[in-house]
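Service request form, structural biology core

Requester: graduate student, group of Dr. S.
Request type: structure prediction, single chain
Budget code: on file
Notes: please return the result as structure tokens.

Sequence provided:
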Amino acid sequence: MRPTPLACAFAGLALTLAACGGDGGEDGGDAAGAGLTGRGPITLATVKDRSGTLQELVDAWNRARPKEQARIIELPDKPGDQRRRMVQNANAKSGAYTILSLDVVWTAEFAANRWLVQLPKGPDGLDTTKLLPATVTTGEYRGRLYAMPMTSAAGLLYYRTDLLQKAGIGAPPKTWREMWAACDKVKKRPEGKGVDCFLTEVGKTEGLTVSAAEAIGSAGGSIVGADGTPTVNTPQAKAGLDFLVKAVKDGRMPRAALTLDGEGGRRHFQAGKALFHRQWPYQYDLAAKTDGSSKVAGRFAVAPIPGPKGPGAARLGGRNYAISAFAENKATALDFIKYMADGAQQKAGSLATSQAPTVAALYDDPDLLEKYPFLPTLKTAIENAGPRPSAAKYGGVTSAIQGAVHGALSGKTSSGAALTGLQAKLGRLTAAR
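Core staff response, request fulfilled:
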């Protein structure tokens, strides 16, 4: 019998740890690895471990390192609440969190505020050469590595294969127009009664920033340019925002979406209440469960998100591990990150959760491909995905985006006025200090 990926990961733990010696960095100043000293207990502040796999991997580490125990601290579900907890911890210069599981878009903010230590790369540090290049950039700030990519993600279109087939539609939509046409056909059938056409995260959370960036990017616009200058007050950006506004106004997206977060949307789709759903890869494993928790198991598939003229512009997601500048036992933390970044641990996590790995070779792994046949689509989406706006004042930036876009979606302001106001706010937030 073939050993399970978790068994292989645990069996190889001693070898992995043997390769993780020393502080692994250069000395002095802000050099990579400087200050990565101290050994002993550590904590990992991260999202909820719903599969239990993270805890199993931590347990394996703890059995091998009795004097350097790792403990998981689970943070709230909403990304905004997670970030607030970490910012509060940093502002207090608290050592409560040793390792931070950061949303990929927080790297610039945390590094710019000197809340993280620079991580060493190379033989004695972290090996980023085996990772998807797109993921490596999410852990860098001004060309230096501050966070190690652990999971990746890109927006995908989940769709009900059974409903499309009964409506005589043989392929998922590539454009917004095709998506609306498919929805109209499905809604005319008995099976389509009570099923919402489309859902993306438009509640006033971090997910709304992602949805806005994808819609605007798909229409050829952007929120912040490559030089950090706001670029949201353009016809292209308005076309993208208008897509979301019209979807709500015309009833193609339920008004209830204005109050749903990512988990609320997931439950909505899994309950069989949506035909098309823009969501992250983690939903695949949960929606495919046959334990009764999902009404769409075996009746859905994924495709690239659509745009106005073809495939849309997905945004990059995922989580990276960073070391708090205020923590003790940073040498142990670095070793733990090396351990968790190894392909065996990433494979175990991906098999259990359908989260996208960052190790490139895993996208050709037979076990993962057998369970998740959408991996080639996901890899392409990650390689082509664009970033969300990255800024040292990210909290203010994302809050401004959410406020402006939510105001337009709820009908409190026009899309044009929302973008004009957002341009001005972003100008103040992104101005040089």
